[in-house]
Design a protein that fits this description.
This is Rhodanese domain-containing protein. This protein has 165 residues and is α/β, with parallel strands linked by helices. It has 7 helices and 6 strands. The protein is globular and about 40 Å long.
Length: 165
């Protein structure tokens, strides 16, 4: 199955899980469109759609081609311990604010790519919002995340500088 199909299946699965989890929590609630459960479900779907539209996806192949150019700020939005255990080469931890501040002098039209664990993860929202608030204009989301990077055979770097597969 082509990677793009897997990614889309994971995204749809994630959305389905969010909706089903919400529906389970709201089971037995009024089905009125003004009910808190209906409003919450609509807000969740709208929020996901907003982020996907505002911050377009970048594929594994596109990211692999962009990284060697040095014309990208790659931001890992995973937890510090996840970043330390392995991240995409060249990525800066979103949790390392001092290091992030050193990159604020980059041209604001530079591509910023944010990612987290995979298609199910929404930690990237904060990193994308941060980049936008700092004035960066070309923000992309690597929705496959660290998991997808590894599935494609991409190397990861641990804090001890060893390359992991």
């Amino acid at each position: 199955m082509p990677y793009r199909s897997i990614k889309h299946a994971l995204l749809l699965g994630c959305l389905s899980l969010l909706i089903n989890t919400h529906l389970f929590a709201c089971e037995g609630a009024a089905t009125d469109s003004n009910s808190p459960c209906a409003k919450s479900e609509n807000q969740t779907i709208a929020s996901l759609a907003k982020y996907q539209q505002q911050y377009p996806d970048i594929t594994y192949q596109e990211l692999r081609q962009l990284l060697p150019t040095g014309k990208v700020l790659l931001v890992d939005a995973n937890r510090p311990e996840t970043y330390a255990s392995g991240h995409i080469p060249g990525a800066i931890s979103f949790n390392d604010k001092a290091n992030l501040r050193t990159h604020l002098k980059y041209p604001k039209n530079m591509t910023v790519v944010v990612y987290c664990g995979g298609s199910h993860c929404i930690a990237w929202h904060s990193a994308a919002d941060w980049a936008a608030a700092e004035g960066f204009q070309n923000i992309r989301h690597f929705s496959a995340g660290l998991r997808g990077w590894k599935l494609e055979g991409g190397e990861v770097i641990a804090m001890n500088s060893k390359t992991l597969q």
